[in-house]
Amino acid sequence: QVHADFYGEAGAEARNSNDPAVMQKFIADSRNKYVGERLKNQDRDLFSALDLQEVFNPAADQASRSMLQTHAAYRVHEREKEYEALATSQIEGVLDQYVGNIKPTDNENVRMSTIRSAAFEANRVLYDPDTGIVKNGLAAAKGNELLVDSIATKMMKTGNRMYGEVLDHVKTGQGASIGKTKYAMEKIRLAEE
Asked: Rg (Cα) of the chain, in Å, rounded?
């Protein structure tokens, strides 16, 4: 019952809160509601105290622990989605600021310098020691995919292949170019079609 309540309207506040006290209150309220609806007939108990102690209470305690774990996993997932959306927005801003301002009349040195600057700034969105989403908990592989996806999307929206060149100047943790990974090459190929 508590799982169903958690994902329903009654659980919205607990689902969206990082405060453990809110979740604990939700669990207690759900338990009290269940006791009132299923274990009592008005003011009369339907089960003996021993039945409750031996059967209901252990099951309810296990359900409470399970719900706390479910809540924690849910919050982590929601935070990751928020970080990903923020990082995507920041990467798009970097791409607009740098690559989006390259002019057809710019010489090759200016163009490459601007692309390298875009790669550096996009990499900072992920790996900056203070604010980078990878440095603050997102898996590096997921961060790299996010960067590739953002650039591929930008390429598809604009038809500008220069955005893909940014990936050649962003390095993986092992020092290889992200643009040379199988994932990036496939995404860029699809974006170019």
From this structure: 26
Sign of the alpha-carbon dihedral angle for 146, 148, 153, 154? positive
Helix (H, G, I), strand (E, B) or coil at 41: strand
- The DSSP element (H or E) to which 44 belongs, if any, is strand 44-45
Q: How far apart are CA 166 and CA 133, in angstroms?
A: 19
Interhelix angle 57-97/108-127, rounded to 10 degrees, is 160
Residue pLDDT, tens place only, 85-116? 999 999 999 999 999 999 989 999 999 999 99
Asked if 31 and 60 count as a contact pair (C-beta separation under 8 A), the reply is yes
Nearest to 99 by CA among 151, 172, 171: 151
pTM of the model: 0.72
Query: What count of residues does the chain have?
Result: 193
Kindly list the distances between the CA atom of residue 124 and the CA atoms of 18, 94, 160, 189, in Å, as whole numbers in the listed order. Answer: 27, 10, 23, 25
